[in-house]
Protein: NADP-dependent oxidoreductase
Amino acid sequence: MTKPVSDEAGEPVPQPVSGKAVIYTARGGYDVIRIIERTVRAPAAGEVRIRVQAAAVNPTDIVVRDPGRGEPPLTPGMDAAGHVEAVGRGVPQRLRVGDAVMAAVTPIRAEGGAQAAHIIAPAASVVPIPKGVSLAEASTLPMNGLTALSALEIAGLSPGKMLAVSGGAGLLACYTIAIAKRQGLRVIADAKPDEFGLVRSYGADVVVSRGPGFAAAIRAAAPEGVDALLDTALLRESAFPAIRDGGVCVSVRRWDDAPSERGIQVKLVWAGEVLERTEWLEQLRDMAESGVIKLRVTGEYAPEQVADAQRALTAGGLRGRPVIIF
Structure:
């Protein structure tokens, strides 16, 4: 038996560990996905190492693979939940070995993303999971929650202003609507007729029919136009008529030829820029604990079933996230 390594004070020193990880060997289709055994280093100062039990699957995972973002080989995933197994120097006392935590990380870094049995994460990107939820449920919260908070910060609306959300029944919309109502905004969202009740349950004040008449339906409900639109459905410039002169369109995807009309500002939201907003992660945890944000897992998959999880997401209609269980 190997004797544990200790420091001068007799405290155990974290050692590298090995476990499964999802990787993309190249850019392309499902055929570039592999499951490998990889070794993960000990955490450095200000970092924690997490034994991942659950990692959510998001549209970003598909964008990273095809058309591609970052340089393969890389590990996808931005959301993880599990237990702290080692901490580096200077990690705050709020994080201890054995704690059940959730984390948001970017796959576009040397350590890769969240879909692995062990990950390194900055301590600022890690908080305890909400009380009363499973690790699988907790793994669906960080990245989309941070995206929602960032989108609302970018929109810069004061209480009483009106926000529209396209793709209103989706997970990002769900979180955004709930947070927007907490911030005192009025919200209009779209949905299929049989999901009107679902979107109202998120907190939307007005729900209009999803489809090519989105902008006209918004204008019918808000004749002067909304102050800002979060475009989760990628409607792009076709949704501009819904926005008032000088309003804001917040997009979850960049488009290089983004047009402008009537002074409308087009802004990109990217969660990768806010992964270390600890106070936001704590706010999201508190909202999930109180039931303001509803966490939904649409299916649990083994690491070897990542392609199936991505296919389910691409097929559309999910009102939550698939989760990889390690």
